Amino acid sequence: MNDRIDKLLVEAGAYFGGEGVVYDAFDPKKFAELLIRQCMRMCDCADVSLLEHNRPQEASGAAGAKQFIKEWFEVEE
C-alpha cells in the first residue's frame, strides 16, 4: 500500500506494529468514508485543473463523477 492509504488507515484507527498493520481500534466505516471523500476531492482537483486548461467538457465529466460518487454512497458534504 502507498503512504496515502496508510495515512487513511491510521485516521480510521489502525496502527503499524512489529508485524504489520494492527486493526484493534480500526473503524472500517470511517476508513470507507475517508476513502470516498478523498476520491471526491480528487474529482474536484481534476475539475479545477481541466478548467484551467480550457477543457470544460472534461471538467464537467469530473464534476459529474463526483456527483455520482456522492449520490451512490449517500455522502453529505
Mean pLDDT: 92
Strand fraction? 5-15%
Q: Count the helices. How many?
A: 3
Largest pleated sheet: 2 strands, antiparallel
What structural class results from the helix and strand content? mainly alpha
Task: Give the neighbour order of strands across the main sheet.
Answer: 1-2
Share of helical residues? 55-70%
Overall, the morphology is elongated
Q: How big is the Rg?
A: 16 Å
The strand count comes to 2
Termini Cα gap: 27 Å
Order of SSEs: HEEHH
What is the domain tally?
A: 1
The parts where pLDDT drops under 50 for at least 5 residues are none
Overview of the structural elements:
By secondary structure, the protein is mainly alpha-helical. It is 66% helix and 8% strand. The chain has one domain.
Task: Briefly say what this structure is.
The protein has a two-stranded antiparallel sheet with strand order 1-2. It is built from three helices and two strands, in the order H-E-E-H-H.
Write the layout of secondary structure elements.
Layout (H helix, E strand, L loop, with lengths): L2 H9 L3 E3 L2 E3 L5 H25 L3 H17 L5
Helix pairs in contact: 1-2, 2-3
Q: What are the key terms here?
A:
77 residues, mainly alpha, two-stranded antiparallel ribbon, 3 helices, 2 strands, 66% helix, 8% strand, elongated
